[in-house]
Write a structure and sequence with these properties.
The protein has 190 residues and is mostly helical. The chain has a domain of 116 residues. Helix content is 93%, strand content 0%. The protein is rod-shaped, with a radius of gyration of 64 Å. The model has no long low-confidence stretch (mean pLDDT 83).
């Protein structure tokens, strides 16, 4: 085998080309094996890939959490506003109900008071008539049983009472009580 390319035969040239291709292929294979055998470089490449993936996932998770936090803040604000509005509405309803109840109670109390007044006036008339009748009978009985000097004093007292009718009713009641007491004492002594 000679070194000059021109002196080669076509078979030699084909063999040389094949050897050259085999060398190139063998070089590539050796490089691939060397790369596979370099564990440190492979580990560094893999670590860089994992690190890059983790950074991407961390960014995505952070973005998702930030987005969800914003949504939750918005929902919380909306729920707070709804709760505030509901509380205000219920407070207004309670106030209105209390005012309505107070108004009804006031009306009921006024109606009851008016009814009681009417009842008292209606029932006082017969009692007043009975008292007047009873007082007239008692006066007749007292007049019949009262000695003349006492009757004169009573007549003078009546004249004074007629002059002062406002104060007279209280005094008349007191006199009637005194006369009745006097009669009761007199009857016991008999």
């Amino acid at each position: 085998m000679s070194d000059t390319a021109g002196s080669r035969t076509p078979e030699e040239q084909a063999l040389a080309d094949e050897i050259e291709q085999t060398r190139e292929h063998l070089g590539e294979t050796v490089e691939a094996l060397a790369a596979k055998a370099d564990v440190k470089a492979r580990a560094q490449r893999r670590a860089a890939e994992v690190k890059s993936n983790l950074r991407g996932k961390a960014r995505a998770a952070k973005d998702k959490v930030t987005e969800q936090a914003g949504e939750l803040r918005g929902e919380a604000a909306a729920k707070t506003a709804r709760a505030k509005n509901t509380a205000q509405a219920k407070t207004a309803q309670a106030k209105d109900a209390a005012q309505a109840t107070a108004a009804r109670a006031k009306d009921t109390a006024q109606a009851t008071a008016a009814q009681a007044k009417d009842t008292a006036q209606a029932t006082s008339a017969p009692v007043r008539d009975q008292l007047t009748t009873g007082a007239a009978r008692a006066a007749g009985a007292v007049r019949d049983a009262t000695p003349a000097p006492v009757q004169r004093s009573a007549g003078q007292a009546m004249a004074v009472v007629r002059g002062h009718r406002g104060k007279a009713s209280a005094a008349a009641a007191a006199v009637a009580v005194l006369v009745l007491a006097w009669l009761a004492i007199r009857r016991r002594h008999r």
